[in-house]
């Protein structure tokens, strides 16, 4: 009978006295991979929240155009444009009904592509811009109208006359602007009657109906931008006074 060496018998019967290693969720010794996973999840959540919650944007006048066109005696469809548009919008992707827009159009930015025509458009026959220097639009309701589509109901005021208007809106893109803040772009169309605003000269030879085409880009300030900090400061002061 073969006798095994003592060292062999000891190894086979040896049991470690060290406790088995287990995962401690409260351990502060996190691996680099675990840290990267946490950071990625946080960034994704922050991005999702930024797009889900309502964001306030300032219209970019350099990338905003309002174009009005009409029929001239059946021969042509001339147009005029409005520049220098000022306004803001709130877009809530999670609940578009909480979205809104308000815009002011300075009539000094009206361009009919002819000095003579510009003078006529600004006269009392049409906009009477010396007496009424601006037009404005303010939404009263925003509704979803299909994938990437909205129906925006609001009030258009021209020459101190306010009438309801419905805009058919297409969301072009949401993304990040050059300042690091959120950026958004829309196109919109609507039809109004100029006689509703006291501009009935030459109807019906020149059409009463005016087709409006709007394109706009708007930017939200980055969280650490001066505009955002100023707004946050005002909000903080207001809450401290309650």
| Contiguous runs where pLDDT drops below 50 for at least 5 residues | 46-51
Computed CA radius of gyration, to the nearest angstrom: 32 Å
Name the CATH class of the domain at 56-222: Mainly Beta
What structural class do the secondary elements suggest? Answer: alpha+beta
Order of helices and strands: HHEEEEEEHEEEEEH
Q: Enumerate the strands of the largest sheet in spatial order, edge to edge or round the barrel.
A: 1-4-5-7-8-9-10-11
- Mean pLDDT across all amino acids: 84
CATH topology call of the domain at 56-222: Lipocalin
Number of helices: 4
Which labels suit this protein?
242 residues, alpha+beta, Lipocalin, eight-stranded antiparallel β-barrel, 11 strands, elongated
Write the layout of secondary structure elements.
Blueprint: H1 6-13, H2 32-52, E1 55-59, E2 65-69, E3 79-82, E4 86-91, E5 100-106, E6 110-111, H3 115-121, E7 134-144, E8 149-158, E9 161-176, E10 182-193, E11 209-219, H4 226-240
Structural overview:
This protein is of the alpha+beta class and 242 residues long. The chain has a domain at 56-222: Beta Barrel (Lipocalin). The protein has helices at 6-13, 32-52, 115-121, 226-240; strands at 55-59, 65-69, 79-82, 86-91, 100-106, 110-111, 134-144, 149-158, 161-176, 182-193, 209-219. The protein has an 8-stranded antiparallel beta barrel with strand order 1-4-5-7-8-9-10-11. A hairpin with a 4-residue loop joins strand 7 and strand 8. The N and C termini lie far apart (94 Å). The model is unreliable at 46-51 (pLDDT under 50).
Summarize the structure.
This protein has 242 residues and is α+β, with helices and mostly antiparallel strands. The chain is built from four helices and eleven strands, in the order ααββββββαβββββα.
